[in-house]
Write a structure and sequence with these properties.
Order of helices and strands: HHHHHHHHHHHHHHHHHH
Helix content: over 70%
Keywords: Lipid transport, Membrane, Transmembrane, Transmembrane helix, Transport
Number of domains: 3
Shape: elongated
Largest sheet: none
CATH topology of the largest domain: Rhopdopsin 7-helix transmembrane proteins
Mean pLDDT: 79
Low-confidence stretches: 1-7, 409-415, 417-497
GO cellular component, one term: fungal-type vacuole
CATH architecture of the largest domain: Up-down Bundle
Pfam family, one: RTA1
Subcellular location: Cell membrane
InterPro entries: RTA1
Length: 497
């Protein structure tokens, strides 16, 4: 089969399947006739040698466009010069069909298969832009680096994505804009979640590492690694699917890769939610045995109600004393709820994306933009806005996030706290003996007793329940009774001498 026959196979006589109630006949400047003639010559040369079906399909589309354009130009010239009005209806009908043919060719080149909404896409681009400025301003003023960088990267990608969709309304066949919005909007939440993962690590340090299954550094490493893997898979799948769609090839492989990447992100976020809820439960109900679990108590602590604030006063002695000043800040007690809500928003978005892409690039969800705005754009925007009001720099305090070391095995604050508790015990013991007349004569004996007290292998068994993180006063019953025994023993030993 020669090239002309193949072209005739793909370029059949075209008539519109439906007629609009009203339409405007296209007009083409007659000076474009020379360009159309050159295009037709190139098509004739290409048809003689081309045998690839996909290439011939595109050649047929180009030929249809040339034929429709010639029809319109010829009709314009006839209507402008002819005097036989009886042929006008036939000529006009041919021009209408040619106009509809050009419209269909243009619509088939639409990579989105919808008319993109300029107002809504521009609105979300503007809102993400304002949110970005706020996040950068707060992060810069409070010197909160890592979290701000993560949120800023995600927000910048959202701005780029919705600006690209706004511009694509006027150029919906531009593959560069299509690729830009796909990749940007697909990977943006991964950067946002990287900041949230790090935030949970800091919350664990502030309360105490004993309230989490994993070490803070492991929380960051595991879930940020999962985010990077998900990001890479989503981006590669999105690029492959977009290129295939551009060339009208099968997009299933790229789509499945994207679905797999987002599905992996959903799985990692599900695991993260488990660790998050476990940490919240442990910090609420395992610190103080007097506080028993109930749903109302859980909600009171989570929503920081009046009852919850009273319960937190009972929990406070059991948390890391080195970060007490952070926990006493007005916004801090809302942070567990804020993290849960923000992760929930991104979780909804990811589940929507999995369902959307599983339907294909011409599925119901992806071709109805209201779902994109409600379940993707709005969810991510609410997450970013939430952290404008509950930015770690505002919640923890200026320059405080830099002092919360996630990479260290043991925070400096905790080490300082342990040293402080030990020094205070030594000071209280010395103070109890300072008024004894024998103390100045047998300082060595007293030091021996002090060393014996601080050796954990010689502590009485009743000290085994002592909570080192609470650093209680030396006036407690257990410590006072032990001091009395030491003092009695010290005095009797001196008298025997």
């Amino acid at each position: 089969m020669d090239g002309v026959s193949l072209l005739n196979q793909y370029l059949k006589s075209w008539t519109p399947t439906s007629l609009p109630t009203s339409t405007s006949i296209s007009t083409i400047n007659p000076t474009n006739t020379a360009g159309l003639a050159l295009t037709l010559l190139e098509l004739q040369n290409a048809i003689q040698t081309e045998t690839n079906t996909i290439s011939l399909y595109f050649l047929s589309r180009a030929a249809r466009g040339v034929a429709a354009s010639y029809t319109i130009i010829s009709g314009q010239q006839y209507l402008a010069t002819a005097t036989a009005t009886q042929d006008f209806p036939e000529v006009t009908s041919a021009m209408v069909n040619a106009t509809l043919s050009l419209k269909q060719l243009e619509w088939k080149a639409n990579l989105y298969a919808i008319n993109l909404s300029v107002p809504f896409n521009a609105f979300f681009a503007a809102m993400f832009g304002v949110t970005l400025i706020c996040l950068l301003g707060i992060g810069f003023s409070t010197k909160t680096k890592y979290f701000t960088i993560c949120l800023a990267c995600g927000t910048v990608l959202e701005v780029i994505g919705y600006v690209a969709r706004t511009l694509a309304h006027y150029s919906w066949s531009d593959p560069n804009l299509f690729l830009c919005q796909i990749v940007s909007l697909t990977v943006a939440p991964a950067f946002i979640m990287a900041g949230v993962y790090y935030l949970l690590s800091q919350m664990i340090i502030i309360h105490g590492e004993q309230y989490a299954i994993l070490k803070p550094i492991m929380v960051s490493i595991i879930f940020i690694f999962c985010d990077v893997v998900s990001l890479f898979v989503q981006a590669s799948g999105g690029a492959a699917a977009a290129v295939s769609l551009r060339s009208f090839k099968d997009t299933e492989l790229g789509t499945y890769i994207m679905v797999g990447g987002i599905g992996f992100q959903v799985v990692s976020m599900t695991l993260f939610l488990y660790f998050l809820f476990d940490f919240v439960y442990r910090s609420f109900f395992t610190a103080n045995s007097n506080i028993k679990y109930s749903f109302s108590t859980y909600c009171s602590l989570l929503f920081n109600t009046k009852k919850g604030r009273l319960l937190r006063q009972d929990l406070e002695p059991f948390y890391d004393v080195g970060y007490k000043h952070i926990r006493q800040r007005s916004l801090f007690n809302y942070m567990p709820l804020v993290i849960i809500i923000s992760v929930g928003f991104i979780y909804i978005r990811c589940i929507y994306r999995v369902i959307e892409l599983s339907e294909g690039w011409r599925g119901y969800l992806i071709t109805h933009e209201e779902y994109i705005f409600a379940l993707d754009a709005l969810m991510v925007l609410l997450t970013c806005i939430t952290y404008v009001f509950f930015h770690p720099g505002l919640v923890f305090g200026k320059q405080m996030t830099a002092q919360i070391s996630v990479s260290a095995n043991k925070s400096e604050s905790a080490a300082d706290h342990e040293s402080h508790c030990g020094n205070s015990r030594m000071y209280n013991y010395s103070k109890n003996h300072s008024n004894s007349p024998q103390s100045s004569h047998d300082e060595k004996f007293i030091m021996d007793q002090r060393q014996k007290y601080y050796n954990p292998y010689f502590l009485p068994t009743k000290f085994s329940q002592y909570n080192s993180h609470s650093c209680p006063s030396s006036e407690t019953y257990t410590y006072s009774s032990y001091n009395s025994k030491l003092e009695t023993k010290s005095e009797s030993s001196w008298q025997n001498r």
